[in-house]
């Protein structure tokens, strides 16, 4: 081929390439097109935006070509930064901002800069509210009809935020925002927490550039189970005085400083969700000291004080009535001196946790101001993802995993931990009576979606550049699904119709921006209808009325009592909210026609949003089968050292017989250390060698410890250590008989009366050859307690059950 022919072919190829790279007319480029500093806004309907087409010239040599840089995607001009804050387990009567007796100056600050909303609602439970918050869709629409640990195989309950439910992180990232998430996650299926992934349901897979926090519903604030993006922060070594709440604020502040230095003009979306005030209640000691003696008035008098404060602040109507005190909770003046001493301590520590959490949120807000970004930052501060938690039992608890499994700890035993309440030696929660009082003026608590005690949240919004009615109060009826469309309207971008090639479900929320102007302070609510459902308790709001089922069993019994077999046979109540803010006057018998209309409307809404099938089981769902790498397996095998597996990836020994076998080698100098463990100080088990003797220890939620120990030291060489447990099941928490063997010979044997019923741990891990978190028995060893011999093979053989 001649050289001229080659030139013609090359030029033709470049011409064809050029024809394929004409800049898209859909993109609006600002600055000089093709320059390194050119930017573009997009219509945002299809995310991510298609690659920008080349707009320069390409010829065989660079000196006859023209470069062209693709423009950076930016939001519309003037789009605000976003700081979205949500605390945990705090009802309407908690914060001082909404009449509570606990000061919350950071929330006050947002309310005074902007607006307080007095009819804003959650779903009544943690991860369902969080899924609704970040997607703008109802919790059943996103698969989160319940927390992920209770997920079942139905579209409304599988805890999978489908690819057709893109989060606000994905939407804003696609439109040029920096996106980050700090604190509690609880929206990844619990069976996907391990390093095996998949990671599409982790924050990084849901549109968040950076994540720093914990994955489950709670974690110990002193020794948290932390992740940075998808990597466990491991092994955990805490600093003196460390507390997670401060760490989260420190990390958010560090992040803001760094991204502001790197890209000062790029707007951020920062989602800050600390664990406060979910159990365990673990603030720092100096905050506890601030509240000493502040709750000596008791829960009944506190309700009166809160309602008076609420009326004074104008966050409830002046005719609001205080709902009746429930018959099955004691009145304060009937308590003994010891009971009052314990219960006031519980409230002091909870209040300290509220105030401490608010203080750390305030530090993040102050950093936004220090960076000069406050005026053009939309700040949404939601106090609680549901009502105050009743999961501490009527007595409160020293160890929260005991209470949520129906195990009460006597007052006298709890008082032994009075001075350690909230420290790393306890994982405390408070009495239900306090929880009910902190939901003033409403009935019920967290988990109860049928009543506002479970779903009414204090919420404030500020955006100094846009919202000018500083200190205003808004009473329109809104729901947590309304946050995403509010953000989208503030930014000026649409909800996408397609993300990553997947058609999107419509956003189900309604923007609240229509309430921002003072002239529209009393505008009618644009949210006309909203359903509620959790564990079979349900309600339907429509145009100022609400119909609600009467809970057949209180949430503090955790569904462990007999529930109605017929879920659709519940008693219903009816309230006219225009006249009865607190749901105090039931009109069901006076207006049966209205009630019937509302019940029919609930069925329509429930069918629309994947609410069916209704299910009123609670604790039982914790042990329901769900997909994971361990599902259906009875035999597990490990070798050498392995650590950091979440409980969902570990062999499940709950409510079943099992055999653990360790084939090991003891060196001539002897050996000690952990062979296998799951859990730690507050519940779990460990098979280990201590003082060269084999030990199996079963820690029943830090309430009892059962110990099997061989009397003779293991000689150098190979040995097989086995622990064989025969359960007395079927049933939850049954006892059984355990035998510890060495080389086939029984060395210890005992029968125990009970075991852990539903949940061994939330924030500890499964480790082989080491213990990377807390010890199952502090008197025996301290983590990491690595085995100094050699593990050839470690196996689990599981019987039926689980």
Structural class: alpha+beta
Number of separate domains = 3
In helices, the fraction of residues equals 10-25%
Name the assembly state: single chain
> How many DSSP helices?
14
Largest sheet: 11 strands, mixed
- Averaged pLDDT: 93
Number of strands: 33
Provide the β-strand percentage band: 15-25%
CATH-defined fold name of the largest domain? Alkaline Phosphatase, subunit A
Which residue ranges are poorly predicted, with pLDDT under 50 across at least 5 consecutive positions?
1-26
Query: Which value, in Å, is the CA radius of gyration?
Result: 29 Å
Tell me the name of the CATH class of the largest domain: Alpha Beta
* Termini separation: 75 Å
Q: At the fourth CATH level, what is the homologous superfamily of the largest domain? A: Alkaline Phosphatase, subunit A
Family: Belongs to the sulfatase family.
Enzyme class: hydrolase
EC number: 3.1.6.-
InterPro entries: Alkaline_phosphatase_core_sf, Sulfatase, Sulfatase_CS, Sulfatase_N
């Amino acid at each position: 081929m001649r050289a001229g022919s080659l030139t013609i072919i090359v030029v033709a190829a470049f011409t064809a390439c050029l024809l394929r790279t004409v800049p898209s007319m859909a993109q609006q480029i600002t600055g000089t097109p093709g320059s390194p500093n050119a930017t573009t806004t997009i219509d945002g309907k299809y995310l991510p935006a298609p690659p920008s087409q080349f707009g320069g010239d390409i010829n065989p040599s660079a000196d006859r070509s023209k470069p062209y840089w693709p423009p950076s995607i930016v939001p519309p001009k003037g789009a605000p930064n976003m700081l979205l804050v949500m605390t945990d387990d705090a009802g309407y009567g908690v914060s001082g901002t909404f009449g509570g007796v606990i000061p919350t100056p950071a929330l006050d600050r947002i309310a005074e800069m902007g607006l307080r909303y007095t009819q804003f609602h959650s779903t009544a439970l943690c991860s369902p509210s969080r899924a609704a918050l970040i997607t703008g869709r109802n919790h059943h629409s996103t698969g989160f009809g319940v927390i992920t640990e209770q997920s079942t195989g139905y579209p409304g309950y599988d805890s999978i935020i489908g690819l057709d439910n893109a989060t606000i992180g994905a939407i804003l990232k696609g439109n040029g925002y920096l996106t980050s998430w700090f604190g509690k996650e609880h929206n990844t299926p619990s069976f996907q927490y391990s390093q095996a992934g998949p990671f599409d349901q982790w924050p990084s897979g849901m549109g968040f550039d950076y994540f720093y926090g914990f994955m489950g519903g709670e974690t110990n604030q002193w020794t948290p189970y932390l992740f940075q993006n998808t990597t466990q922060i491991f092994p955990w070594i805490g600093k003196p005085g460390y507390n997670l709440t401060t760490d989260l604020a420190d990390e958010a502040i560090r992040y803001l400083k760094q991204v502001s230095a790197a890209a000062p003009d790029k707007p951020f979306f920062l989602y800050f969700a600390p664990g406060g005030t979910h159990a365990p209640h673990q603030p720092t000691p100096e905050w506890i000291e601030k509240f000493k003696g502040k709750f000596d008035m008791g829960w009944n008098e506190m309700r009166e004080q809160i309602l008076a404060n609420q009326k004074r602040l104008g966050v409830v109507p002046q005719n609001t009535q205080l709902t009746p005190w429930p018959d099955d909770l004691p009145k304060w003046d009937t308590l003994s001196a010891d009971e009052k001493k314990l219960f006031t301590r519980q409230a002091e520590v909870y209040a300290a946790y509220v105030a401490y959490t608010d203080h750390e949120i305030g530090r993040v807000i102050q950093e936004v101001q220090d960076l000069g970004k406050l005026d053009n930052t939309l700040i949404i501060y939601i106090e609680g993802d549901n009502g105050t938690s009743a999961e501490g039992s009527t007595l409160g608890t020293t160890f929260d995993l005991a209470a949520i499994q129906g195990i009460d700890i006597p007052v006298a035993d709890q008082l032994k931990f009075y001075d350690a309440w909230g420290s790393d030696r306890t994982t405390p929660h408070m009495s239900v009576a306090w929880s009910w009082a902190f939901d003033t003026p409403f009935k019920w608590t967290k988990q109860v979606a049928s009543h506002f005690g479970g779903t009414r949240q204090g919420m404030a919004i500020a955006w100094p550049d846009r919202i000018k009615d500083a200190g205003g109060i808004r009473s329109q009826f809104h729901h947590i699904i309304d946050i995403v469309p509010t953000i989208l309207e503030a930014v000026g971008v649409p909800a996408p119709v397609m993300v990553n090639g997947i058609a999107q479900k419509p956003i189900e929320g309604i923007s609240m921006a229509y309430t921002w102007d003072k002239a529209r302070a009393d505008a009618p609510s644009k949210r006309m209808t909203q359903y509620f459902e959790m564990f079979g308790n349900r309600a339907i709001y429509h145009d100022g009325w609400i119909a609600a089922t009467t809970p057949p069993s209180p949430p503090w019994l955790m569904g462990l009592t007999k529930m109605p077999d017929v879920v659709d046979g519940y008693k219903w109540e009816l309230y006219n909210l225009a006249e009865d803010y607190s749901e105090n006057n039931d009109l069901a018998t006076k207006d049966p026609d209205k009630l019937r209309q509302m019940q029919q409307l609930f069925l329509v809404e429930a069918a629309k949003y994947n609410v069916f099938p209704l299910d009123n089981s609670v604790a039982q769902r914790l042990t329901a089968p769900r997909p994971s790498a361990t599902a259906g397996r009875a035999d597990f095998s490990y070798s050498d050292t392995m650590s950091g597996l979440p409980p969902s990836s570990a062999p499940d020994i709950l409510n079943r017989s099992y055999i653990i076998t360790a084939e090991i080698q003891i060196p001539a100098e002897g050996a000690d250390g952990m062979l296998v463990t799951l859990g730690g100080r507050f519940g779990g088990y460990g098979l280990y060698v201590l003082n060269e003797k084999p030990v199996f220890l079963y820690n029943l939620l830090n309430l009892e410890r059962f110990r099997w120990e061989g009397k003779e030291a293991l000689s150098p060489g190979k040995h097989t250590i086995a622990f064989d447990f025969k359960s007395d099941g079927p049933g939850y928490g049954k006892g059984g008989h355990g035998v510890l063997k060495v080389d086939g010979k029984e060395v210890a044997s005992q029968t125990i009366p009970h075991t852990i019923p539903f949940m061994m741990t939330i924030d500890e891990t499964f480790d082989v050859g080491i213990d990377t978190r807390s010890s199952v028995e502090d008197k025996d060893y301290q983590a990491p307690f690595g085995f100094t011999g050699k593990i050839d093979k470690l196996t689990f053989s599981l019987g039926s059950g689980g």
